[in-house]
Design brief:
The complex is a heterodimer of chains A (197) and B (199). Chain A has 197 residues and is mainly alpha-helical. In chain A, 65% of the residues lie in helices and 0% in strands. In chain A, 57% of the residues are buried. Chain B starts with 11 loop residues before the first helix and ends in a 5-residue tail after the last helix. The chains are: A mainly alpha (197), B mainly alpha (199).
Chain lengths: 197, 199
């Protein structure tokens, strides 16, 4: 069912409809499913390379700022409630008290930023723009919050915290490329920003 | 039914209300970060071990719990040591170890349903800001229901694409998964609306 009318689609309304809630729950669950893909453990890295930020980018690209951000926030909430949904079956409150909590908490913001940029530019969206907005939200925002958080709670210098984190950027770029390819294909097949109202 | 990391038991921590446990955990973390003392940080570790073991979950599970963060904490220590502040490194690692153990103890002794009920209660005061706790509850329940559905859908799609030799192609796996689950979600939203359920 595709509603072609674009009226009101891009507005930021305070109200969350039943359909919005279903989409939010769906993308939270998709995020969980993506995390079931076994993480790539690189020998010398203390954190596995995971698909998590791929879902962050996809949520923003596909269902927009408000719903995408809330979907990832819901996912984070499910983890906090005690569901083992993070890569490698991790979960529970303990992940929010470890040094990398800032990265996890940055995911909803990242999805919101990617979604906001996507909504703003919906008529001219293509794979390249999806890639650019995925990089801004899914990489830029995530490190902008995660690195200072790490520095603060681990009492490290910002430079040391950044050094430890930026090794993941190449993997993130690959994820942004994948997110752009998926988002562009889905946009053509099932244009959600218009259908989902 | 128990889902998630909850481990049934009858310890004192199991019987304590979720709100009290969460409050204590937040208080402990604020205290540990507010007091910049290595001695306090080190002293908190045996306390956290004792709290964890009081849940009756045993040492093997505890080791499993700490194995993941151990490497990460090792790196934090190495960065501190390289910067010449070994004492601060020890304090940081001790602080994290304590908090991770205490937080695990809360998660392992509190069922997901009880945590969800606590979240709904905590969101109550935010109602004037447009937060509807009932909607949050619906979203939590729907998402938990969707996870096995998506996993099953993904298994089917992977089998179908394997028959075409496409089971290592990310696009061929994720695009059908997204579109099929979106269709299912649209149908579900139609069904909820058709029944006149207003959340």
């Amino acid at each position: 069912m595709i509603v072609t009318s674009m009226k009101g689609t891009f507005e930021m309304t305070r109200d969350v409809s039943t359909r919005d809630i279903v989409y939010i729950a769906l993308f939270a669950a998709l995020m969980a499913a993506v995390n079931l893909v076994p993480p790539i453990q690189v020998a010398f890295l203390p954190v596995p390379i995971t698909a998590a930020t791929l879902a962050v980018m996809l949520a923003g690209c596909m269902i927009g700022a408000k719903r995408g951000g809330l979907a990832i926030l819901l996912f984070v909430l499910l983890v906090a409630l005690g569901l083992p949904l993070l890569a490698g079956g991790r979960g529970g409150l303990s992940v929010f008290f470890g040094p990398t909590a800032g990265f996890i908490l940055s995911w909803p913001v990242g999805a919101f930023v990617t979604g906001w940029l996507t909504e703003r530019n919906w008529p001219r969206m293509n794979a390249v723009w999806f890639f650019v907005f995925s990089v801004i939200g899914g990489i830029g925002v995530v490190y902008l919050i995660g690195i200072p958080w790490l520095a603060m709670v681990a009492k490290l210098s910002l430079f040391d915290a950044a050094k430890g984190s930026l090794i993941f950027v190449p993997g993130d770029i690959v994820k942004a490329i994948a997110a752009a390819a998926i988002a562009e294909t889905v946009r053509r097949a099932y244009p959600l920003m218009q259908a989902a109202r | 039914m128990t889902i998630g990391l909850y481990a049934p038991g009858a310890s004192a921590l199991h019987r304590l209300p979720a709100g009290v446990k969460l409050g204590a955990l937040v208080a402990a973390s604020l205290a540990l970060f507010a007091v910049p003392s290595t001695i306090v940080a080190l002293a908190s570790v045996p306390v956290a071990f004792a709290v964890y073991l009081s849940t009756g979950l045993g040492v093997p599970r505890l080791i499993r719990e700490l194995r993941g963060p151990a490497l990460l904490l090792g790196f934090v220590f190495v960065f501190h040591a390289l910067a010449g502040s070994v004492e601060e490194g020890i304090a940081a690692v001790a602080r994290f170890a304590s908090l991770i153990l205490l937080a695990s103890a809360v998660t392992l002794t509190t069922p997901v349903s009880e945590m969800a009920a606590l979240v709904e209660r905590l969101l109550g005061p935010l109602a004037p800001l447009g937060v509807n706790p009932a909607k949050v509850g619906l979203a939590i329940a729907l998402a938990i229901r969707f996870i096995p559905l998506i996993a099953e859908e993904y298994r089917q799609i992977r089998e179908a694409q394997a028959a075409r030799g496409l089971d290592r192609n990310l696009l061929a796996l994720v695009v059908p998964l997204v579109i099929r689950t979106l269709k299912a979600a649209d149908d579900l939203a139609d069904a909820i609306e058709a029944r006149g359920i207003e959340t």
